[in-house]
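Retro notes, structure queue

What went well: the backlog is down to a handful. What didn't: a couple of records were mislabeled last round, so from now on we paste the full input next to the output in the thread. Example, using Imidazolonepropionase from Brevundimonas diminuta:
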Amino acid sequence: MIRPYHPKSRIAPVDLLLTSATVVDVEKGTTTPDQLVAVRGGDIVAVGPEGEAGRYRAARTLDLGDRYVMPGLWDMHVHFGGGEPLIEENAELMPLFVVNGVVAVRDAAGDLAQQVLDWRASPPTADAPRIFTSGPKIEGVAPVWKGVIETGSEAEVDAALDRLQALRVDFVKITDNTLTPELFLYAVREAKKRGMKTSAHIPASITVLEAAEAGLSSIEHLDYAMKAGSRDEAAIAADYLAGEYTYAQTMRRYADTFDVETARRVYARLAELGTAVSPTLYGSTTLANLDKDDHTHDDGLAYVGPGIRATYDWRVQRAAQATPQQVEDRHFVKDVTARTLPMLRDAGVTILTGTDAGFLNSFNYPGFSLHDELELYVSLGLTPREALAGSVVDGPRFLNQGERYGAVATGKSADLLVLEANPLADVSATRDAEAVVLRGRLIDAVELERMRAEIRARVAARNAVFKPSPAS
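Corresponding output:
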């Protein structure tokens, strides 16, 4: 139990005391200057006027000089994967999140599910974000993806949910590669009955509202929400199920028939149902723009191992083989999809700020891309407060962690970001962390730069000896 300082107590010992802090309340959109933040262990034990600093005896004190303190960032959609040969490279991504101010991630499934579960219980390094994970995702029989739980009947879905409950996953991920529409809806309903959160790619063969009415907790990727705005969504879904159009053609049809009034009606219903959306706009925008940018000059390349970079090739090659019409289609779908973000906000839909960073998703660099995601939201009409809330307030709440995270307040976890500028005025301020407090441990500017240099050196060493596999 956290015991905050009581005015009648003697001087209280703390591990860390931040003084002259301007505390950022992301939920309310306010700042409070001239504050102190006292930390003991991994907990914030007091926040108050800096004039009360004499009430504490700190092992370490840091005068922030009126710099801003906010909760550390959460990336609500990442992936670890690439098979056993890339376990070490995935583990080495952990400090990359932290130096970018990301203190927690929601792993939305890959092919290293058990390894990620092990990391959740015992992080591979002290400089690792907290991990919340779905474990292996539920799919149909003979899917493209590796490491999934294949299900072809209701009994197999039940067994999959039994397994996931035994693994104590943080939510259930369901995807649409080969899973039948009927089993998709069955899985969502059954997971809800068990009190499990669900996250999904919605099959093109069912409507968004069908999934939401079944109890889906979150829609992953904004283009799945975009199709809900099509005035012909049900008919287009039926055509796709009948095999009359490819998936890419189907998405173009949804975009062509997008209707603002239809979208507003459906999004209002999503808000009523409590269905959240994780847009992952940076990832989808990067992929849509591969005809414009080859990313050879990205600073992020120096921070990601060669094995993970090799997994980018699949999407890069597929994009390069696209016809001019397919390129035009993907840009059109991207643009229509982006328009829906402020509409979801206006409808009251919870937006979970996530990036899709990790293996396979080309040039989507863990940690760095969360800042790109935030800036995209603001460029599309969200306020900096709204963009940040999707990460640090609604992210924890979605995972039933709101009591412990989401504010700089007594009793909350000491996972903090110290910034030079006010992120509520300019969301890009999150890019320049002066310090990170991770589970109560201060990582100051000198240590952050040392960590960055260490990551770059480790990647350079891997590059020097890397031999691509035939599949790469």
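Agreed that this is the format going forward. Reviewer comment attached to the example: The chain has a mean pLDDT of 94.
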